[in-house]
Amino acid sequence: MAVLAVAGCGGTDDTSGAAPSPAPSASTDSATFMVRDPWIKAADKGMTAAFGTLVNNTGTDVTITGVSTAVSPMEVHEMTMKDGKMVMQPKTGGITIKASSSHELAPGGDHFMLMELTRPVRAGDELTFTLTFADGKTTDFTAVAKPFTGAEESYDPSSGMPMTPGQGMTMSPAP
Fold first, then answer.
1. C-alpha dist (Å) from residue 76 to 49, 84, 95, 100
2. Residues sharing a CB contact under 8 Å with residue 120, sequence separation 6 or more, in sequence order
3. For residues 3 and 35, what is the distance between their CA atoms, to the nearest angstrom?
4. What is the pLDDT of residue 16?
5. Is 30 exposed, middle or buried (0-12, 13-18, 19+ CB in 10 A)?
């Protein structure tokens, strides 16, 4: 189980399984906010997504308004029904995790979208992400890439899956 603990938006990350454990981040206070079991769908080019469980152990709601990584511009995304079709779109206002609860990022649901990969993300690769909260604080976490074909979704705009682009989002596939 991978866990990121955040205190004042610093964190640690612990993974288990086939991937080696990433180095801990700045803070080790596990009593506040955690990203449990973070992972990325492996991809050679174009788009992909990051998943996990956001756990808020504080007494206050927190909202994640942004996410970034060095290998791609990113957006906070959701899957929703629109005109009888499932569409992917930026999640207006970000993701709010209620006090003392959790929120799952999963294929076919909310996720962190990597928009235009600058390099392949292969199974076993580890990427560092920075979450931005509504109060302006940030924290880093590390996730491992895994091969995944479940949920039959595609993050490639040429796949035919309806997507609602965010401002500045390029919808043509990467070369």
1. 10, 22, 8, 22
2. 43, 44, 45
3. 5
4. 35
5. middle
**CA–CA separation, 32 and 108 (whole Å):** 27
- CA angle in degrees (0–180, nearest 5) for 120-147-154: 75
What is the rounded distance in angstroms from the CA atom of residue 7 to the CA atom of residue 150? 34
pLDDT tens per residue across all 175 residues of the chain: 444 444 333 333 333 333 333 333 323 344 588 899 999 999 999 999 999 999 999 999 999 999 999 999 999 999 999 999 999 999 999 999 999 999 999 999 999 999 999 999 999 999 999 999 999 999 899 999 999 876 455 454 444 444 444 433 322 223 3
Q: How many CA atoms lie within 13 A of 162 on its CB side?
A: 9
**CB of 44 closer than 8 Å to CB of 120:** yes
For residue 153, what pLDDT is reported? 52
**Helix (H) or strand (E) segment spanning residue 55:** strand 48-56
Burial 113-123 (b: 16+ CB within 10 A, else e): bbbbbeeebee
Contact 144, 126 (CB under 8 A): yes
Taking the C-alpha atoms of residue 146 and residue 82, their distance in angstroms, rounded to an integer, is 30
